[in-house]
Amino acid sequence: MYDVELYHHGIKGQKWGVRRFQDYEGNRLIGNQYYKRSEKVHSRLVKAADNRLAAHAGGDKRKIASAEAKYKKLGEAYEKADEADGVRRDKHVAKDYKKALNKIDQGIAEETRDYHDNKKLATTFHDKANKYKDKAEIASEKGKLARAEKLQAKSDKLEGAAKEYDKTASNHLKNISKGYDLTEKYIAKAQKEGLKVNSKRTTRNVTRGSEWVLNFLSAYAGAYTGYSVMQSYHVEGRHYNVRRPK
Questions:
Q1: DSSP state of 237
Q2: How far, in Å, CA of 167 to CA of 28, rounded?
Q3: What confidence tens digit (pLDDT) does each residue in 174-216 have?
Q4: Which residue in 14, 146, 149, 192 has a CA-CA distance of 20 to 30 Å to 93?
């Protein structure tokens, strides 16, 4: 029998729990931190430059010619690698901007849904409050003061709920405005980096998870009855595409 043990000491430069596309704080890296192929070529180019100077100092023509040829070759390779790094960086940054802009637009669509929902509820409660208020006035005119007091209390309660929904709707409207401001900021930033931003009209699905489940169950039941159809909540929005100009 042999005692076999397996040891693993990790990989040079490896940090536990840190992915290649993250820094030590877990933040996603962007830009040149992704693509540094030109740096490897650059280090070789610097070394070739030192060898070139040493060859010229030595005066050996063969060594000078060899050093010059290698330096020129690495210089061309560095230019190509640097350009390729720039292209890859721009593509990746464009992808990040596209993802961010569409995520913001989805958020605006959801805030728009919540704004309309709360505004609708506020109107419903306000109308009910007015009905109870009218009934309270009629009861008061007929001398039914106790009933009038109860009806007025219901009216006040419903009016208070309507005001709360109005307040919530106002907060959603502020968030929509913030979303548009953030969109403009991201577009300006992307254009400043030399990227092209295009957008087109689209519809955003903003159906809540619970609504989707109820719709699904309703449609599933409707498959046997033929009366129910799956429905979803859509809001108009913009679909953004960000790319590097050719």
A1: E
A2: 37
A3: 999 999 999 999 999 999 888 899 999 998 888 776 555 555 5
A4: 14
Tokens encoding 4: 């076999």
Report d(CA 37, CA 68) in Å as an integer: 23
Distance CA 47, CA 38 (A): 14
Partner residues linked to 198 by β-bridges: 241
Please report, for residues 22, 60, 199, 225, the alpha-carbon distance to residue 56 in angstroms, rounded to integers and kept in the order given: 44, 7, 58, 92
Average pLDDT over residues 78-102: 80
Nearest to 40 by CA among 65, 69, 91, 74: 74
104 by Cβ neighbours in 10 Å (0-12 / 13-18 / 19+) ranks as buried
The answer to whether 228 and 222 are in contact (CB under 8 A) is: yes
At residue 234, the pLDDT reads 82
- Please state the pTM of the whole predicted model: 0.63
Alpha-carbon distance of 246 to 8, in angstroms, equals 47
| Crossing angle of the two packed helices 61-141 and 37-58, in degrees rounded to 10 | 160
Q: Per this entry, what is the length of the chain?
A: 246
As a whole number of Å, the end-to-end CA separation of the chain is 67
Token duo for residue 155: 């009216």
DSSP state, 12? T
Mean pLDDT for the chain overall = 78
Q: Which helix (H) or strand (E) holds 212?
A: helix 209-225
Per-residue pLDDT tens digits for 154-163: 999 999 999 9
